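Sequence, please.
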C-alpha cells in the first residue's frame, strides 16, 4: 500500500527502548514500515528487539537522527501527537481526521506523524514543525496512554484511511510539482527567512519575540502554501529586505 509507505512515524526522545520495539510491531501489523528515531535515550537495545516480537526486521533498518529536521526532510504534511493543548493553541484533529489528512497528502509525497517523549511529549519547538495536533480522546479519569499503544491506535486509523482511499484519484494527485504543498524543510527555510526579515525591518525584537513567529506559523500552516507560493513569498521577503527602490 504505497500511501502507507509514504507515511513516516517519528519517535522523538523515547526513554524506554521497549516502546520502540512495540511501536515497530504496532506499525508492521498495520502495513506501515517507515519508523524513524530522533535522539532516543537508549538504542539499539535488546529490549527493543524483544518487544518487536517479529518486527525486528524493521528495527534493523531504523535510522536514528540527532535533529528532527533531518528526519522530516522532504516531508509535506507533518502532524504531531499530544495529550494536551498548550498556552498558544494548535489546530487540533481527531485520530481519524488526522489519518485521513495524512493519507490524502501522502498521494503527493512523504508525510510524517510525530510522537514525543513518554513523560513530557513534544516540545513547543518540535510542535512548531507540525501543521496540527492529533489527540486521542482518552477518558479524562485516566488519560495516560502508553506510547506504543498510541502508535497502535494511529497506525490502525492510518490503515483504515488508506483502505478507504482505493477509489478514484484525488485532484491533488495530478498537480504539477510547483503546485503541490511545500515540504517541511521548504517551510522551515521560509520561516527562517521571514524571521530574519522581520528583525531587519525592526518589526520583531529578537530578544522579546513573544508568540509572534509561532502565530505566523499557524497562519501559514492553515493555508497549506504550495511550492510556488512559498517561492513568491520568499521573493517578497528578499525585496523587502533590500528596502524601497530609489
Amino acid at each position: 500500500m504505497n500511501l502507507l509507505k509514504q507515511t513516516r512515524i517519528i519517535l522523538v526522545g523515547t526513554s524506554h527502548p521497549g516502546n520502540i520495539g512495540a511501536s515497530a510491531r504496532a506499525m508492521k501489523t498495520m502495513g506501515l514500515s517507515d519508523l524513524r528515531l530522533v535522539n532516543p535515550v537508549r538504542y539499539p537495545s535488546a529490549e527493543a528487539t524483544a518487544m518487536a516480537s517479529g518486527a525486528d526486521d524493521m528495527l534493523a533498518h531504523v535510522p536514528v537522527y540527532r535533529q528532527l529536521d533531518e528526519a522530516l526532510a522532504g516531508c509535506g504534511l507533518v502532524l504531531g501527537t499530544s495529550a494536551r493543548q498548550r498556552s498558544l493553541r494548535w489546530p487540533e484533529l481527531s485520530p481519524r481526521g488526522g489519518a485521513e489528512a495524512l493519507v490524502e497528502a501522502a498521494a503527493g509525497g512523504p508525510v510524517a506523524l510525530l510522537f514525543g517523549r513518554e513523560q513530557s511529549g513534544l516540545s513547543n519547538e518540535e510542535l512548531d514543525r507540525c501543521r496540527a495536533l492529533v489527540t486521542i480522546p482518552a477518558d479524562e479519569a485516566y488519560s495516560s496512554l502508553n506510547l506504543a499503544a498510541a502508535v497502535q491506535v494511529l497506525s490502525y486509523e492510518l490503515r483504515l484511511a488508506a483502505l478507504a482511499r482505493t477509489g478514484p484519484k484525488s485532484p491533488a494527485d495530478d498537480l504539477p510539482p510547483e503546485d503541490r504543498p511545500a515540504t517541511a524543510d521548504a517551510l522551515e527555510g521560509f520561516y527562517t527567512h521571514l524571521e530574519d526579515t522581520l528583525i531587519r525591518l525592526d518589526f520583531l525584537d529578537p530578544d522579546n519575540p513573544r508568540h509572534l513567529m509561532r502565530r505566523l506559523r499557524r497562519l501559514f500552516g492553515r493555508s497549506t502554501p504550495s511550492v510556488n507560493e512559498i517561492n513568491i513569498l520568499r521573493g517578497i521577503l528578499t525585496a523587502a529586505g533590500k528596502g524601497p527602490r530609489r
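DSSP finds eleven helices and seven strands in the chain.
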